[in-house]
Amino acid sequence: MSARSFHSFARVLAGAAAASSLAACSVVGGSGSPQAATDVVLVTHDSFVLPKPLIRQFESESGYHLVVRASGDGGTLTNKLVLTQGDPNGDVAFGVDNTFATRALDADVFAPYDVTLPPGASQYVLPGDDHRLAPIDNGNVCVNVDTTWFATHHLAAPRSLGDLVRPAYHGLLAVPGATTSSTGLAFLLGTIGRYGDAWPAYWQKLLANGALVTDGWSQAYETDFTQGGGHGDRPIVVSYDSSPADTVPQGSSTSTTKALLDTCFRQVEYAGVLTGAANVPGARAFVDFLLSPAVQKALPESMYVFPVRSGTPLPPTWAKFAVQPRHPFSVSPARITANRDAWLRQWSDLVSR
Amino acid sequence: MTRSSAGRLAALAATAAIPLLVLGVFFVLPVGGMVSRGFVQHGRLDVGGALAVLGRPEIRRAIWFTLWSSLAGTVLSLLLGLPAAHVLHRLDFPGRTWLRALLVVPFVLPTVVVGVAFELLIGESGPLGGLGLDGSPVAIVAGLVFFNASLVIRVVGGAWESLDPRPAEAAAALGASPLRVLRDVTLPALRSAIVSAASVVFLFCATAFGIVLTLGGLRYSSVETQIYLLTNTLLDLQAAAALSILQLAVVVALLVAAARLRRTPDARVGRSRVRLRRASLADLPSLAATGVLLALVVAPLAGLVVGSLRVDGAWSLANYRALQTPGSHQALLVPVTTALMNSLRIAVDATWMSLLLGLTVAALVTRRSRGGGERRLRSVLDGLFMLPLGVSAVTLGFGFLITLGRPPLDLRDSPLLIPVAQALVALPLVVRVLVPVLSGIDDRLRQAAATLGASPSRALLVVDLPVVWKPLLAAAGFAFACSLGEFGATSFLVRDDRPTLPVVIYRLLSHPGDLNYGMALAAAVVLGASTALVMLLVERLRVPSVGTL
Fold it and tell me: How far apart are CA B356 and CA B342, in angstroms?
């Protein structure tokens, strides 16, 4: 071996040594945590957040250790639960909402648990459910407008779904897709609640009026909406009734956006014990915990949703700017079950043309 | 079959056992699980019903769109990538290594980040908003080229660099024009690498998911986005299975065709010293093409950097300082800095796994075969490990969930799962980087070493290693960077309390608030910079004189 090739060989050895020392700080080199008997495993969507002190309080009071498993958005979560029915990836699930819940119930994903509901919560129980899903929070998907934009452009903001197809608002709306986002699906259901079987005609007009369809809520709100982080060009966006509480500039006492309360569809999120759960008592304890006053009070700040427990105090900006609609549009769970897939295919066809 | 050939086949099978086992458990089993669910309806096998799905108009439209957009993406990636490979790997100019590292960054960025970067640029309020590209097929194809041109540079550049310059010089000395030299000498010698790069790029284009969704605004659907829609939203496993099978069939056909095209014997990759030369007037076209590519890559990245540095209309580092926090409204469970550490640790594992597997596969595939049976076996093996490129992340992700949850394969909680999945994603790249180099080694050198009394391991050391170690390091860097940016499979498997960097970026983007959006941009810049750093290190480690015995 010549000196030069020996040199290169030494380099390779040095590289291998460096690689093996790196391996010492790898994941495999570290320790995985085997499932303990006291673990309670929560399967939930990506938006699940609760303050750490609250979680610690649950763990010290119940004696269980909480393991959180985020599983995509509400739709993905539901499908994962359906696919692993009987052999669930956890003990308890939170985040299945009323647009997808019947799919999970039909597949027998949840086991009955006669939970004691707090005052006010019973109005949110899924019609036709027999003690399997406990309502935890609710919120409305509503059209939001940038009030400052409309003021500076001397244009009256739209008020209803019907206004959105008027020429004055051409090219101003950004809406997340119904097939790729749960917000988008809720908005589609809202238009179905409003227009019934004539909804495709409404959507045709909406698209002809320059509505921009994005793949998810974040692109519509954060990139395309004038008040989002990306400061886009569209002053009308499909978001939530709670969104205006997030657009109060620092030092200001007013919000720069407003939710249109006549354009809303109500979403209710549920929790339930999974069929085949390894830790049933732990799962039940967690459902009870979600309904406790402390968690209910934390919901707005953590997950931008309203508590189901009546009398729960709201954060100051919420009390002022997050107004809930009195009469949101609704579509019955039975009707959603029967038509969800056909509607989504039809919608997809309209948009991709 | 003689005893010795049976023995060789047995040895071949034994060496292939470990990579095959990994592929079986982490690819065949999950994908098979999902697909078989689609084919079994109400307890009965119903293949016809599933295949009938392919006749639906929206599916036919998706297939057509996938074909032409992928073809356009591949052709443009080659048109821009090949000149750039020449410029970056054969010409000498200051800042060459930096430029190489920069041009590779896009390939390993997660699509969520690229989507945001493009939106900042071509979105209605972006500097190019007036062109009306947002949501157009032009934007989708541009996104595909943005991603994949770097792959052409990498794969073809690596071969170009170690190409023996003497035939070209001889041709030139005999009076051939530069174009003629390129057409008659250089390109035929690079054919194998070009075919490899083109087939992989086509696969990546055809399975691009995030790009089509973000830049197409749901107006265009590809086979991949249809599979996502069918699986994730409609839970129509029958239709999804039919499309998955179609995808696999196309991938297999493509691999067979590519193998045919590659079969012509390569010009041996010489191990002579690489001499870079200064650019001349004849290089103007390739320099121009490199400039175009550079603009395509730099513009969105620059937009990202600028966006991350702007807070309330003023320049600020606030978004970067916030990376140590969980974001506004506790958007994250752990700060971005922790996620970066997680990503680095996972990447270390994914890298050694993919190198180990990739080297085994590449060695198996390139050793000289005795007899047709053995050769066919080797080419089947070669193709087998490319298959993961042709399967959608959503199928694989759901497949993991339904097949790896029961003993004896209760792996859903294993810390190994994410690195293994990422290693499988990087594996085809590692193999494709190594195969052209290994197959370029003249077997006679090994025989000569053996004749001179070298043991097989010593022959490996003196013949293979000096040629292979540079591409090996490049492959390692590539695998590491790929792992840093991998999002599709990871998002399905990741644990909430141990997220990776791309996963927290996605999470930040989907939580309201200016700070979260700004942090997402800053985190994306950090990810891009880490990736560029890795690629730069790889470039720096290269020693031009290595390989001269």
Answer: 22
